[in-house]
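Researcher: I'd like a structural prediction for the single chain below. Treat it as a standalone chain; there are no partners to consider.
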Amino acid sequence: MDWILWVLPVGLLLYMIIAGLYQRRQLKTLTEEEFRSGYRKAQLIDVREAKEYDNGHILGARNIPLSQLRMRHKEIRQDQPVYLYCESGMRTVRAAAVLRKKGIKDLYNLKGGFKKWNGKVKKSK
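Model: Treating it as a single chain, here is the predicted structure.
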């Protein structure tokens, strides 16, 4: 029985390592400087909900909430890079998984999400 107490933490650690490596394959995380230097040549998608987007978003971003992404993925071109962001970066990982299943592969994520963004912001309301 003591071996179970040892195997469970080791298994959890291995799972976290594998999940982290898989996430890196899903999308590349960029610093704000890297993100800023490339997002004007890409499709900039805010995957937060509409209310969050309206309260402030990166200038030039389109809002396609994660909750609608499976239905609206055809609005995103496959031949251009896609720069994604959410509030902290967690939803972007899920959004990237959805988009990869739909054939969109050139995906980038803003490190720390919108809450770490220091660039220009637009408010819709």
